[in-house]
């Protein structure tokens, strides 16, 4: 049985027919995050085409994508998607704090503003966390917006102990 939200909406696996809506919601996510890192002034719209291409590739090949696994969960709205969430699994080298080297990453849980406060993000997260458990990941990481942080903390996420740096070529 598929999970249902508080509003009795069904959480389901995304299909290729959802690509345009997934692109719309992901663009909405970055518009709301703001800042130069998420919406660089020099950035154009070409990333949207690249996103559609990658989503199509991932959805057409199932959950195995060569670089790991992906799960894309959605909730339908009146016309289009109300919410989506993406999870990935990456195989890294095992270590003392990463027993099997499997890391989950939650990417871009976003709900269209017209459908917020109905439990959609929570149910999508529950579906992703169930998938991570079934996939035997050792840890799940995510970056939380200020608005989303209370939900993630309620689901058991805590501050990450590792310092985080990044580099762009």
Please state the average pLDDT score: 86
What radius of gyration results from the CA coordinates? 16 Å
Low-confidence stretches: none
Question: How many DSSP E strands?
Answer: 5
SS strand fraction: 15-25%
Biggest sheet statistics:
5 strands, mixed
- Helical coverage, percent range: 25-40%
Overall body shape? globular
C-alpha end-to-end distance: 45 Å
Which strand order spans the largest sheet, edge to edge or round the barrel? 1-2-3-4-5
Order of helices and strands: EHHHEEEHEH
| Total count of helical runs of at least 4 residues | 5
Find the structural class using helix and strand composition: alpha+beta
Annotation keywords:
169 residues, alpha+beta, 33% helix
Structure, explained:
By secondary structure, the chain is of the alpha+beta class. Helix content is 33%, strand content 21%. Strands 1-2-3-4-5 form a five-stranded mixed β-sheet. β2 and β3 form a beta hairpin. α1 crosses α3. The model has no long low-confidence stretch (mean pLDDT 86).
Structure described in brief:
This protein is α+β, with helices and mostly antiparallel strands and 169 residues long. A 5-stranded mixed β-sheet has the order 1-2-3-4-5. Helix 4 links the parallel strand 4 and strand 5.
């Amino acid at each position: 049985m598929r999970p249902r939200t508080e509003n009795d909406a069904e959480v389901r696996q995304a299909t290729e027919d959802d690509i345009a809506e997934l692109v719309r919601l992901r663009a909405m996510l970055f518009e709301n995050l703001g800042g130069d890192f998420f919406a660089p002034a020099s950035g154009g719209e070409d990333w949207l085409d690249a996103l559609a291409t990658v989503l199509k590739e991932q959805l057409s090949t199932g959950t195995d994508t060569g670089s790991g696994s992906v799960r894309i969960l959605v909730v339908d709205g009146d016309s289009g998607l109300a919410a989506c969430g993406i999870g990935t699994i990456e195989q890294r080298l095992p270590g003392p704090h990463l027993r099997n080297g499997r890391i989950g990453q939650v990417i871009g849980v976003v709900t269209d503003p017209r459908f917020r406060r109905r439990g959609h993000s929570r149910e999508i997260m529950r579906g992703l966390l169930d998938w991570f458990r079934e996939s035997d990941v050792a840890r799940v990481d995510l970056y939380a917006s200020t608005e989303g942080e209370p939900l993630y903390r309620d689901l058991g996420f805590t501050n990450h102990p590792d310092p985080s740096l990044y580099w762009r070529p």
